[in-house]
Amino acid sequence: MVEKQWKKFLALIGEVRDLAAVLELLEWDMQVNLPENAAAGRGSQIETLSGIHHEKATSKALGNLLDTLERASFPPGSFEQALLRRAKRDYDRERLIPAALVRELGAAGSAAFGAWLKAREEQDFSVFAPHLERLLELKRSQAALYRPAGHLLDPLLDDYEEALTVAELDPLFGVLRREQAAIVRKAVERGLEDDSFLRRKFPAAKQLKLAEFVARRIGYDFRRGRIDQAEHPFTTSFGLSDVRITTKVFPQLPLSCLFSTIHEAGHAIYEQGIDPSFDRTPLADGASLAFHESQSRLWENQVGRSLPFWRWLYPVMQKRFGGELGGIPLETFLRAVNRVEPSLIRIEADEATYNLHIILRYELEKELIEGSLSTSELPEAWNAKMEEYLGVIPPNDRLGVLQDVHWTSGGFGYFPTYALGNLIAAQVWELAHQAIPELEEEIAAGKFDNFREYLRANIHRYGAKLPPRQLLKQLTGSETPDPRPFLAYLEKKFA
Q: pLDDT digits over 105-124, tens only?
């Protein structure tokens, strides 16, 4: 009887995952290929499919199967037990959301993305503002369904990082803001490193080829993925056999494309390393967004901005770009790569200032969700915090409040996972050095297999089988990210 019910359960959640994958495909196409005037039609398609997915994901049939199988007493730590835990959590959360709200969120997100693109083009936040306000209304309604909560943002944080709360984040971010600001001050006081040679024009086609070369070398499997260009780089998965990344090219910022690609490849390598038997189930995901960001930031920063990495890649880059870098010594180039400078754009920010960009966004979206900050006040509030935390003021909305795509889909609560990911990345980096004493020598030789396999064995293969706090404890001995290794890493590198 149990075996029969289990087969029915797997078939049903497989259908739910397939529908989710098709929704992701529509979103991917919207950001990569969608014609200018096609946004309204795509919005209708997403709204319709979101409703069908929600109906299937919250069906009585699925609920009955979960109730039956929960009584079956599968062994602790088994695939079955883990899948039921995750599926029950997803089901219970999804059941609280009315189908109409799901459809509205789908349509509002599609419309918001089109408005965001237009607003960026016109450098005018007011074009996007009403769409942001609508998304805030809908997300407040969603968050209210999960009360009681300490803060209205808590249920939205939980969407990305299980059990994460404002009460936990506020003191942690207070420490990071204080300590990182001090590190930034010390670094800036020494003077800015010359990076003028990186602001020449580097051919876009060569940048893309280099980015693809590096992504392939560090382990991104192009047989199960591809690279495209988008307004804002992202990674998306339609199943473990199709994990795609995007990047963006700026002719006079050659490292932007490269580091964006490494970052997104880090996400994709994680997804591609999940146990294949988890495919078409809720376990075919990262443990959490913080773990996901730990992998992207780890490859981008600890690996991609290190001396060993550039001992390998810099001669390759010099050869490919010829005269643009011909006379620049490696040491000079590396100092430019790791230049600390408070700047406007989050995805271009150095390691020392990056979390300050994250904390700024977290604080603003917290105020937006609770209603203490209106959308009309947001650009001014954004600029004020940029001046306070980083000492720079955006000259226009495109370089300020309109730079991130996350809020166009209602992704409130996502940003903190980047900072948590930085903390986990530093912890994993320390552990990897203990497990692979010759790690830096291997990286300097362009060999990444052992490091990637270490990550696969200790993080990737588990997918979402283990809750994030359990996985972190298994790795580090603690259920919560420890800021000390990250701050020590920054201090050693920059201060």
A: 999 999 999 999 999 999 99
d(CA 333, CA 319): 15
Residue 224: partners with Cβ closer than 8 Å, 6 or more residues away: 240, 241, 242, 243, 272
Q: Which residues contact 129 (CB under 8 A, 6 or more apart)?
A: 375, 376, 378
Helix (H) or strand (E) segment spanning residue 458: helix 449-458
Query: What are the extents of the domains in the chain?
Result: 2-145, 166-494
Residue pLDDT, tens place only, 273-296: 999 999 999 999 999 999 999 999
Q: What is the C-alpha separation between 109 and 367, in angstroms, rounded?
A: 20
The catalytically annotated residue of 104, 161, 264, 351 is 264
Its pTM stands at: 0.94
Which among 245, 246, 257, 247 has a CA at the least distance from the CA of 203? 257
Task: For residues 253 and 124, give the distance between their C-alpha atoms in angstroms, rounded to a whole number.
Answer: 24
| C-alpha radius of gyration, the chain, whole number | 22
- SS3 at position 408: helix
> DSSP readout, 27-93?
HHHHHHT--TT-HHHHHHHHHHHHHHHHHHHT-HHHHHHHHHHHTT-PPTT-HHHHHHHHHHHHHHH
Measure Cα distances from 73 to 70, 78, 159 in Å: 7, 10, 27
387 catalytic? Reply is no
Q: 166-494 domain in CATH 1.10.260.40?
A: no
Q: Spell out the SS3 assignment of 174-217.
A: HHHHHHHHHHHHHHHHCCCCCCHHHCCCCCHHHHHHHHHHHHHH
